[in-house]
Amino acid sequence: MTKVAQHRVARWIVQHCYGAATFVWIVRYLTLGHIPIVQRPIWADWFDQSRYLTSAIALAGGDLSAGAHWYPLAYPLIAAPFVWVMPGDPFVLPDLLLFLIACAGFQRAVGTLGVERGAATLIFSAAAFVQQDVAAAWVNPWTSTLSAALIWWLLAGTIASFDGTAPPLARSRAFVLGALAGALPLVRPVDALVSLTCLAAAGGAVVLHRRLTPAAMLATLVGGLAVCVPYGLLHLAIYGPHPSAYMIAAAQTGFVPGDLGWKAHVLLVDPRPWFPGTASILETLPWIVPGAAGLIAFGIVEPGRARAILALLAIVAVPVSALVLSYVDLQPPGLWRFCNIHYFKWLFPLFGVGILLWWRLLETTRGQGALAGAMLALLLPLGIRIDPVAVAADVPARMLFFRGDRQRDWQDAYFAQATVSDGSGVQANVRDFHQVPDADGERAVAVRRLFGADPRRSDPSEPGGGVRGQRPYARYGQRITFGLP
Q: Whole-model pTM above 0.90?
């Protein structure tokens, strides 16, 4: 193929990549059971989505009563204008547009690693839609769709600041960077960590290259305030000078960083010894490991700017992922049953880039060695096992087994208003432990603190009249070993 023909093919791909991404989104939307306009949304009665919809409709109608708004306001605010276009499902068009905007930000960010726009679109679409649960996280309403678009454009802007040959940072770019960084925590508060990391990295880069000016600093601040001040005024109009009910509930749920090792194992590697009948992230999406290896190896082999870009992606992705993994309410059953995999969906296309980079790395001996080392470094920790082991009555336990109805509905058991009391206090189901059905009744898995001596369960909704002060018939701690499951 001549260079002219190659250029024409590349230009055709670029011109049509968004059309292709739109087509793929619509196909996935329809294949997951959606029929817009004709049918009531399949998610209309889901907990999160029903509250997004109530808030969007209320905002469209000027209803600022606190009872109409549960979640942060940014995502419903995006959908509010579309209530007048598609009142039954005002999130269809915004979700599609946000997907395309996120894809465009991803293109720009990974383009600095030499990934062409057409390839980036293909990677982004494949990572989003090949696996059904991840696809559902993109075509059903989730706040993470908006945050994904903001994250990738914030990363693209941060990466652009690494160019040491560019002129001083323009005020318009600084304003946009500040606005993106300010908007992100308003969508998902946990992503404030992403904003702070990107601002620190961009600031460090422009200072290092002597491109920072007082005007750019002021523009960054103004950009952040341009987003945060109107949002703050809207919050005051709805809730007054008080936190919302969601903010209070999220703070009470909280994070347990000290339990990160166990949480990472059951979410990423193998949940079945603790939560039967579910799968881990790496079991469902095994290409993450070779993708991560490709990114690590490319960062080792490639000098200069590529290494700095991959370092930025790592220092953004790893801490925020660790924080999300330590979130008490994120447990293996919820990954797939309740689509909590959406927390990580912005990150998956990056591992697709890592797989693409394999082809470059395999061309050189150094690249091959780096790949082998990266794969070994990633696979070895996956051999660590954290399995249940029976413990005595006076040893803290991670898991308790209780006798109960063998035919109990899974969700009834999972969301039951059950408690377990011990010498350290009373723990509540969902907030402090998770109750799941088992062959002889239920098992309770501690997610906030371990169970102490002489625990007693109360579950008024247990079929057959409920239970009060029930002792477990078995208790398990955890044992760390190394080997295959």
A: yes
